[in-house]
């Protein structure tokens, strides 16, 4: 959230003078490298910095894609914007459910490997 909050006004300011598609590409590139860095982090500070950089990629889509959706849709702009913004919490909720189910499966399989109630 820190990266998202800090970089959001910067991207909004840069969108006035630079091509927004290039800014989205820059944000996507930073997000890709930050994702790889999060996977290969070695201590708390390295993962904290990589997680902050993930916010840069998120803000490039959240703040810059909405005007294009608003301009490029031929009908019902509010419907497409609602779908776009609904996908963010839906993705988080789906990941949380997946993680919870995966943890339950691991616990049950470990229980079965250890011999059950013996």
From TrEMBL:
Coiled-coil residue windows: none
One term under GO cellular component: membrane
Protein name (Swiss-Prot/TrEMBL): Putative major facilitator superfamily domain-containing protein
Lineage start: Eukaryota, Viridiplantae, Streptophyta, Embryophyta, Tracheophyta
Chief localisation class: membrane
Topological relation to the membrane, as annotated: Multi-pass membrane protein
InterPro entries to which the protein is assigned, alphabetical: MFS_spinster-like, MFS_trans_sf
PANTHER family the UniProt entry points to: PROTEIN SPINSTER, SPINSTER
């Amino acid at each position: 959230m820190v990266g998202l909050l800090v970089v959001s006004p910067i991207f909004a300011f840069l969108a006035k003078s630079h091509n927004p598609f290039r800014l989205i590409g820059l944000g996507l590139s930073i997000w890709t490298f930050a994702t790889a860095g999060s996977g290969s982090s070695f201590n708390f500070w390295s993962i904290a910095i990589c997680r902050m950089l993930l916010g840069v990629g998120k803000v490039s889509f959240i703040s810059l894609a909405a005007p294009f959706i608003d301009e490029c849709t031929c009908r019902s702009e509010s419907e497409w914007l609602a779908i776009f913004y609904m996908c963010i919490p839906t993705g988080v909720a789906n990941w949380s459910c997946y993680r919870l189910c995966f943890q339950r499966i691991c616990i049950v399989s470990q229980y079965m490997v250890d011999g059950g109630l013996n």
